[in-house]
Amino acid sequence: DISSLACVATVSFNHIAMSGDGKYYKLSSELRGHEQDVRAVCALSNGMVATGSRDNSVRVWDPADPKSCTVLHGHQHFVGSLVSLFPTVSHPTRLFASGGYDNVINVWDAGACSGASDTPILTLIGHEKPVVSLSVTPDGHIISGSWDSTARVWIDGECVDVLKGHEAAIWAVLGMPDGSILTASADRTIKVWRQTNPDSPSSPRECVATLQRHTDVVRGLAVLPGVGFVSCANDGLVLVWSASGEPLMELSGHTAYVYSVAVVEGVGIVSCGMLSFYLYFHHHHHHDHIISYLCPGEDRSVR
After folding, report:
1. How many whole angstroms separate alpha carbon 224 and alpha carbon 174?
2. Given 144, 152, 244, 283, which residue has the most CB atoms within 10 angstroms?
3. Strand ranges across the sheet with 170-175
4. Burial class (CB in 10 A: 0-12, 13-18, 19+), 219
5. Could you read off the pLDDT of 86-109 as tens digits, one per residue?
6. How far apart are the C-alpha atoms of 104 and 154, rounded to whole Å?
């Protein structure tokens, strides 16, 4: 039913044809293997898909071969966040990072995807509560957000900055194209952080703005190219913001919590809530599009 669809485990509608007279959905594939609900999903640069679950595992899948996967056991508790990573000079084979309710972040390389290694190349320790959100800066530094109300910036396995200021758990972090960092929290605010010395990668960041438009827990953030960013919250709203933090548009339709939001290039904004799944299309698109979308949920499957 529509209630479970909004929370379904890694749902990929690989063929969504949009036209003036309706929308058509075709299921691309279904990946089953997790023993508990799937809490995070990530498309990797090598074409694979990584998923994290409350069964404490990370699984790496080839969508073309849905009956097999590589299982990674690097966490001692639920896996709640994933982020795709691009190679760096110091770690040229890294592919993605996973964040867990064990307060740990693991960084995985190509060997993990192939099954050659079940050991992360880096383990990042510092958070005092579950790591529920991960992102990356334009220069490849990992950003993590935690229920300990802090966000952290990591370079080559070392924490170089701790962002403090929120009064409740952080639910989402986002690296912006201009190098700034956004954090979204259960305190109903979004904070904008910028480096005091942009020429030094490890220089500390300070909060330059606190955005207070949502009226409940802010759950998700996504970059909206050419405009700024979008946010979603338990107040049932998706908000569009300028890059400078000015509210531009309020997208309504959800009648309950909105858990996640994403931007599909050339199409529009996708949001996934407790009771509904919405696509907000750019008004000037009237021809068919083929898009892929992934969102997490609770039936232990991957679609």
Report:
1. 12
2. 144
3. 170-175, 181-185, 190-195, 205-211
4. buried
5. 999 999 999 999 999 999 999 999
6. 13
pLDDT tens per residue across span 215-237:
999 999 999 999 999 999 999 99
Residue (of 160, 185, 159, 166) closest to 174 by Cα position: 185
- Structure tokens that stand for 252 in this block: 């309504």
- Pseudo-torsion of CA 251, 193, 108, 76, nearest 10°? -80
Backbone angles phi, psi at 245, to 5 degrees: 95, 15
Q: Is the dihedral of CA 77, 144, 218, 42 positive or negative?
A: negative
**How far apart are the C-alpha atoms of 130 and 140, rounded to whole Å?**
22
| Cβ proximity of 297 and 8 under 8 Å | yes
Question: From CA 168, how far away is CA 173, in angstroms rounded?
Answer: 14
pTM for the whole structure:
0.85
Which position has the token pair 């259960």? 186
Q: Are strands 247-251 and 170-175 parallel, antiparallel or unpaired?
A: unpaired
Q: Is 114 helix (H, G, I), strand (E, B) or coil?
A: helix
Strand, helix or coil at 112?
helix
Tell me which amino acid residue 221 is: L
**Distance between CA atoms of residues 57 and 62, nearest Å:** 17
